[in-house]
Each structure stands twice: as structure tokens, then as C-alpha cells.
Amino acid sequence: MNLAHRITQHFHDSAQLKLDAVETLAAPIAQAVELMVKSLLASGKIMACGNGGSAADAQHFAAELVNRFERERPPLAALALTTDSSTLTSIANDYRFEDVFAKQVRALGQPDDVLLAISTSGDSKNVIEAIHAAHEREIPVIALTGKAGGVIAGLLKEDDVHICVPATRTARIQEVHLLTLHCLCDGIDTLLLGETP
Q: Domains in the chain, please, with CATH?
């Protein structure tokens, strides 16, 4: 077994997917940035959700907005729906795990908000339920998926944005998701603060 060769292949595969995906993803990422900035300027907030690695991505994104990305600026309103263990476990225990994000969207979501729904497969049941809850409250959805978008692809409405990584391997999809989140953060800062010199 040549571990160095395997590691090198991972780097090459990740870089190649990013290069191959940029033409497909640049326009929806830009559209998502504009939707998020519109929300933030209207005193809305970005709610983010996902499972496993996507839960970590939701928290990472919220932290970059509430604290800062690469430039000093006032904090921006963002909330990861993955972090309140008492809320998550009480909903999962009393109702269903599929409801852990949807109930929070119904409780906290307002029309000027945006839901960032992250699912590498596009089939995460609790993320799907969160999308239904967002639509009930007239909250637009930015879906970050892979594997052709799964069930989520068929749920999105005209005002929603679908950023679907053209890949099937979960690790590669997640790597592009992280780059996408950084592009969203940079785009938000650019629209709010102007371009850096």
C-alpha cells in the first residue's frame, strides 16, 4: 500500500472536481449571495441546517457571519439549527428526528429570513422537512446538495436557489461545499463592504 500515492490522488481528485464544477456552480452561488444579502439588509437572518459533516458546515457558516470571515465588519445574523442539544433531543424524543429542524424553522423563521439547507445526498429527511417548513412561512431556501440533488431538487420553488455539486462521492461533495460556503461569505462581505483593494 502506498499511502502517499492515495493522498496525492485525493488532492488531485478534489482539485479537479472544483475546476470542473466552477462553470456550473458560479451562477447559483452568486444568486445565493444576492438572496442572503437581501435578507440581511432587511434585518432577516440566515438559518442553516444539515447532518453530520453538513451540520459542522452549517455551524462553520453561521460562525463566519456572526463573528467575521476575512474582514472586520459588524456581526451578521445567522443561526445554525444544529447546535441546541436540548431542543434537538426533545423534538427527536417527543416527536420524530425528522422534525428537529422544521420545528425550529416554524418557531424562529420570519419572511425576510433565508434557510440554508445542506445535504450531500439531497435526501436527508429532516432537511427536507425544514424546507417544507420554510416554504410554509414563505422563507426562500438555498439548497446545497450533490448526487443530482436527490428529493430536495424536486422540492425547490422558483425563488429558491439550488447549488448542486456534480459529484457522487460524499467526501468530494463536502469539500466543494466548504469552498462554496467560503465563496458565500466572501460574496456577502463584498456586496456589503465593497471589493478589497
A: 3-193 (3.40.50.10490)
